[in-house]
Specification:
Number of strands: 7
Mean pLDDT: 93
Number of domains: 1
CATH class: Alpha Beta
CATH architecture: Roll
Largest sheet: 5 strands, mixed
Structural class: alpha+beta
Distance between the termini: 12 Å
CATH superfamily: RNA-binding S4 domain
Length: about 70
């Protein structure tokens, strides 16, 4: 698990996935979310615009990040 510092306004899920290099482009975000492989706090999320905040845990496959 890796802690990722974010600002007080948080970050959107699609932006986060690009930031941590889980995908290279915005187009790849859609496919990854549709696959059901993205978990936020243990639940499958398919909305690329989902707002994330401090304390959220995001998992893609075997990689997990916590927003700090």
């Amino acid at each position: 698990m890796t802690d990722i510092p974010i600002g007080p306004d948080g970050i959107r899920l699609g932006q986060f996935l690009k930031f941590v290099n889980a995908v290279e482009t915005g187009g790849e975000v859609k496919g990854l979310l549709e696959s059901g492989d993205v978990l936020v706090n243990g639940a499958i999320v398919v909305q690329r615009g989902r707002q994330l905040g401090v304390g959220d845990t995001i998992s893609v496959g075997k990689k997990t990040w916590t927003l700090a």
